[in-house]
Write a structure and sequence with these properties.
single chain, Aminopeptidase, 182 residues, globular
């Protein structure tokens, strides 16, 4: 695919998510219980049609920026990252990430991609606050959020139903003034 990067990094680039990204490999991530273990809004089975509809929707959204994470070593799409629910008055957005290709887990990809989109949110979109939430059982996301400078703001008790039980959701926030790149 020959779409130029939107944001270039050291080990990954971020570029607009495209219908060309929607293939069996992409859909397989979204049907992998390990990849989607902590996802709060996922439906199984996930189909090519659902994926295409999602990409078409976010590509025209005025409140969501969803980018493909591209591994520079192979030039392949390995996940998605987003600033979503962008609120122009409050100047806030929700940060979300899915790293579908498990070969890249634990290699700093999520951190670099996250730093890139957060910097874009504060510097280019002039956001005041970026926030995220995750299940209490998602230790990897909690560690990532803390490593990015997010502060725990609270917990929503039994707010997510996963694997047959309700679990708490940990909420995080990062203010522009507290961002290391500020």
């Amino acid at each position: 695919m020959d779409i130029k990067p939107f944001i270039e990094g050291r080990i990954v680039d971020l570029r607009p998510l495209s219908l060309e990204d929607v293939n069996e490999r992409y859909v397989s991530w979204l049907n992998d219980p390990e990849v989607c273990k902590h996802n709060s809004h996922h439906v199984f089975p996930y189909t090519l049609e659902l994926a295409k509809h999602y990409v078409e929707t976010v590509r025209t959204s005025r409140s969501d920026i969803v980018l493909a994470i591209i591994a520079k070593d192979e030039g392949t799409h390995i996940g998605n990252i987003a600033l979503q629910n962008i609120h122009p008055v409050n100047r806030s957005a929700e940060y979300a990430i899915i790293l579908g290709d498990k070969e890249y887990w634990g290699k700093g990809v999520a951190k670099e991609a996250s730093q890139m989109i957060i910097r874009h949110g504060f510097e280019s979109l002039n956001l005041h606050r970026i926030y995220c939430g995750t299940s209490i059982t998602n230790e990897a996301m909690q560690k990532l959020a803390a490593g990015l400078g997010f502060k725990e703001e609270g917990r929503r008790k039994e707010a997510m139903y996963k694997n047959g039980s309700f679990v708490d959701v940990v909420e995080y926030g990062l203010l522009r003034k507290d961002h290391a790149g500020a």
